[in-house]
Design brief:
Layout: E1 6-8, E2 15-17, H1 30-37, H2 44-55, H3 57-65, E3 74-77, H4 81-92, E4 97-100, H5 108-113, E5 121-122, H6 126-131, H7 137-146, H8 149-158, E6 163-165, E7 170-173, H9 179-192, E8 195-197, E9 201-205, E10 211-215, E11 218-222, E12 227-229, H10 246-251, E13 256-262, E14 266-268, H11 274-280, E15 284-293, E16 299-308, E17 312-314, H12 316-320, H13 322-332, E18 335-340, H14 347-355, H15 363-371, H16 375-384, H17 387-391, H18 393-400, E19 403-410, E20 418-423, E21 440-442, H19 456-477
Helix pairs in contact: 1-2, 2-3, 4-19, 7-19, 14-18
């Protein structure tokens, strides 16, 4: 039964009643019969008040407070943070929930995110937090206002897991790992009545509108009055988020932005030499700055740490500007970034150190002793500068603080930490329901937004899942 509740009574003594018409065909009880007897009254509020007078407020409210449990189950497709949060919001309201996932177990990408320490959110001020979502900050803000970073931390605490704030402001669960949190969460959801169906790969809709699932036992059809799609984007497909849903929604006329890699590494034009790749791939470049000009002429400059990969560069510093790098490459074909290997050194001091007589010492020993340049930083200088530039003290000093590196492409989306693109917010109403598919809600990375690492990705996934659950509840109630 879809509930379109109205308040009857005042203050804490009030309760919710469904529309009189919703009772048609319901197995009669004395109370329902009494309620139906009064259905000739002007509206359901009058009928409800009449029922209260006859059987008492407590008994009447008790009947209808539990009526949501007779609603048709809501189907949620995707067992990651967004889908599970939608399930939790619904089951807390007494709605039956079935969660379907293609993988043999739930939350696989969530567990991977916790391998190096689960960065659940960030402790910076709210306005700064919202700004991390760039062009989509305006549509992400309402979601975060409903389920804020502080609310997320409180939710983790309610699972019996403490959190702490790291030196950079990032928030982690005690123990740093995702597995204890996921175990506690799934246990709570099962106890609340959520039903999980693994190895159920969604394959779209059939001609009647039923949801189609490929299972080890064959195709299964599920008829759902309300559905939450939370299948993720297209990064790490081996963990379940493979973007296979794109053609099914496109065929239904849903407005989609192309899925592209976000928080990804980038390839160096022409690749590294065999020497650098074999000796230094996987090594970090610590305390460096990266700068470039994007396709719109905006200057970008950030400090941090990155890593030399087999094909180019990756790591936190790169991820922080990956959206601008990706879009600039898409517009221009390539982008030149400049690395400052000594961001804390004044240029004059670097020039003086390089020009200092080195006697019989090798260039490597000289730069190591005077400037601390060694290992992968020295290898990059040899990789990117000509022999003549290495011999020219002025040019070498300048290159150390503005080393040009031509990037030609982002790494494939399957290797990216997350993806951008997906269902445009313009295709959704304020409750995250698809305008062209009533009763179908969307959450998580299926939506067209992106954010850097640092807790922002998970925060928006949780918040959008909460909002989709809330929206689905409102839809089921007929609001």
């Amino acid at each position: 039964m879809a509930i379109q509740a109205v308040s009857v009574g005042k203050g804490r003594a009030g309760c919710l009643f469904p529309p009189v018409g919703a009772l048609a065909g319901t197995a009669a009880t004395d109370w329902l019969g009494i309620f139906a007897q009064h259905s000739h009254r002007r509206n359901q509020r009058d009928a409800g008040q009449a029922l209260i007078r006859q059987v008492g407020l407590k008994s009447a409210c008790g009947l209808f407070d539990n009526m949501e449990r007779n609603m048709s189950p809501v189907t949620i497709i995707g067992g990651g943070p967004a889908g599970l949060m939608a399930a939790e919001r619904l089951v807390q309201a007494g709605v039956a929930v079935d969660v379907y996932d293609a993988m043999p177990s739930l939350g696989r990408k969530f567990l991977l995110a916790g391998v190096g320490g689960l960065n659940i959110t960030h402790a910076e001020p709210f306005e700064a937090f919202v700004s991390r979502y760039g062009a989509r900050a305006g549509v992400i803000r309402p979601l975060l206002e409903k389920f804020s970073p502080d609310a997320l931390r409180a939710w983790v605490h309610a699972l019996g897991i403490e959190t702490f704030v790291g030196s950079s402001g990032r928030v982690f669960p005690a123990g740093m790992k995702a597995a204890p949190l996921l175990r506690a969460w799934l246990h709570r959801l099962r106890q609340a009545g959520v039903r999980f169906h693994v190895r159920h790969r969604w394959t779209g809709w059939d001609g009647s509108g039923a949801l189609r699932f490929a299972t080890p036992a064959g195709e299964r059809l599920v008829h759902a009055e309300a559905t939450v799609l939370a299948l993720g984007g297209a990064s790490w497909p081996k963990l379940g988020s493979d973007g296979a849903w794109v053609p099914w929604l496109t065929a239904r006329g849903v407005d989609l932005a192309p899925l592209v890699p976000a928080n990804s590494g980038f390839d160096v034009a022409g690749g590294w030499s065999a020497h650098l790749r074999s000796r230094f791939a996987g090594q970090p470049l610590k305390t460096v700055a990266l700068g470039f000009t994007d396709a719109a002429g905006r200057q970008h400059e950030r400090r941090g740490e990155l890593m030399v990969s087999d094909t180019g560069i990756e790591g936190g510093l790169v991820y922080a500007v990956s959206a601008a790098l990706r879009d600039t490459i898409a517009a221009q074909g390539a982008v030149t970034v400049r690395l400052d290997l000594l961001p804390d050194w004044p240029p004059a001091r670097v020039a003086a150190a390089v020009a200092h007589p080195r006697g019989a010492r090798s260039l490597s020993n000289h730069l190591q002793s005077r400037l601390g340049i060694r290992g992968v930083k020295m290898a990059l200088l040899r990789e990117l500068l000509t022999p003549d530039e290495l011999k020219d003290a002025a040019k070498l000093a300048q290159a150390m603080q503005s080393l040009p590196l031509l990037l030609s492409a982002p790494r494939p989306i399957a290797e990216a930490i997350s993806s951008a693109g997906g269902i445009r917010f313009e295709a959704l109403d304020q409750n995250l329901m698809l305008r062209d598919l009533p009763g179908v809600f969307v959450a998580g990375e299926m939506l067209d937004w992106e954010a850097p690492t640092g807790g922002y990705l998970l925060s928006a996934c949780f918040a959008s899942g909460y909002a989709a659950g809330q929206g689905t509840l409102a839809y089921a109630r007929g609001e």
